[in-house]
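Chain A, query sequence.
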Amino acid sequence: SLGGCAFARQFEITPQELIAGGLYQDLAVACFAGIHREVSRCLLAKALGARPGREQEASLRRSLFVRFSRTSLPAQQQPVDDEESARRI
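Chain A, predicted structure.
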């Protein structure tokens, strides 16, 4: 009465090449609040085709290097973060 149709009708009238190309593949992306909000936003951006820029990639590499090098190296082999620390060694 309001001019609507059954949802299945959309698949019947949509060109097959669009369906095959993934038009209806991902209709929704779950997003969560709280401590998961930032990850949800990143995953949503990635689903929409976003790619990390050079600055984000460099920041990620630095944080991973610092995190894993501090947990896996003996104390005398820790990476030096600043000039003052370098003078003390």
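Residues 54-72 form the longest helix (19 residues). The chain has five helices and no strands.
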